[in-house]
Design a protein that fits this description.
about 15% strand, alpha/beta, hexosyltransferase activity, about 180 residues, Glyco_trans_28_C, Glycosyltransf_28_UgtP, 6-stranded parallel beta sheet
Amino acid sequence: MDPRKPAILLVGGGEGMGPVERTVEALSKVLDVEFQLVVVCGRNHKLVERLKRREYPAGMQVHVKGFVDNMPEFMFASDIMITKAGPGTISEALICGLPMILNAYIPCQEEANIPYVVENEVGLFERNPHKVALIVKGWLGDQAGQLRAMAQRCRKLGQPDALFNIVRELSSMVAA
């Protein structure tokens, strides 16, 4: 990846679900700057093949991946992440200082994560792929200051030692 170009990470979850293909299409039509797009399709091999066969506009460098085990590397290298509202992904994004657009959620299980992200001003929720692309265009353009501020808030909210803190707390409870 080229660190001089903006990078967008589009994650379809382990099964490559959600509006991934429509979001790629919308980004290709709406963005008018050079950018990189990493699309993680999980185990959805048909989606990987379809996206790899597509032709993309000049200035749009696309990296299509299946299931990956190095997600933190992609997160640290990206400026924006588009993903569903999974708690693990949100936690990792916060630690990486990565503003996000949540575009889907599993009812009941992930629903409460959306207000957490929006109210803490570390990202937005938008299902419509065209509107997602317009948000990204703004963040990479005249709203770049908003993107930088969100990245700072992400780093403040992120808790890289959370697991160790939980273990310490549980240990002290057992010892008491």
